[in-house]
Amino acid sequence: MAADSSDKDSTATPSPADDPAVGPNESANEMADSSSEPFVPSEPSATSVPSAPSKPSATSETSVRSATSATEADDTEASEADTGQTDTAAYPPALIATAVALPVVLVVAVLIAAVMARNMPTEHEPLVLGPVPAPAADGPACTSLLPALPAALDDYTKAQLVEPAPPATRAWQREDGATIVLRCGLDRPLEFNRASPLQLVNNVQWFEVRDPAGSASTWFVVDRETYIALTVPDGSGPTPLQEVSDAITANLPERALDPGPLPN
Prior knowledge:
Layout: H1 2-11, H2 24-35, H3 58-90, H4 93-119, H5 140-145, E1 152-153, E2 156-158, E3 169-173, E4 179-186, E5 199-201, E6 204-210, E7 216-221, E8 227-233, H6 239-251
Antiparallel strand pairs: 1-2, 2-3, 3-4, 4-8, 5-6, 6-7, 7-8
């Protein structure tokens, strides 16, 4: 039995280390061949893929935006308030008061100028008056009356006459160009007769002659030393006759009427 064991041992395949035919170089080469194979990483499994980050909700984004907008608005208002305080502080109070008062002063000045311009008499060109027979124009009656006549008759103001003007004449003119003319020292009007109607105005008797070709009337004073004519445009009212009558009553004495004969 012992002999059989030894025979089996002697016939067993020798290991590379014990086999003299396999050198140390061949063993090293096998190790090198095994180590030179490339390394291939293993693919990750489906369960190892990282999940995508969750998106914030719409409510959260709205809240963030609202908070940001509110913060920006507060910063803007604070900046504007600081700027306004800086701008206000940059101007002295006297300058601010002047800037406020200046427009008011200008408006008041314009209104005053407009009122003054309206109240100032309108300047007209001098009037041209043609001559008429006036034999008593240089007599005492006209010499006393003309200086006593008023400078204005209602809204008519004294007008300038082109020289040489007829003697013993005066004129007044309205802004629209309407004119009142007085002539003193005339002859008795042809239309004045015993049947003529008269009108008493402030103790002066007037006789009216209507101008058929125009829009005016000529009133004659018939109860004084000389005849006086006052030509008045239609629509002038009673004031011109009243004011001239007052001047006549104060300066010329009354006398008896001397009408012409009745026409045949």
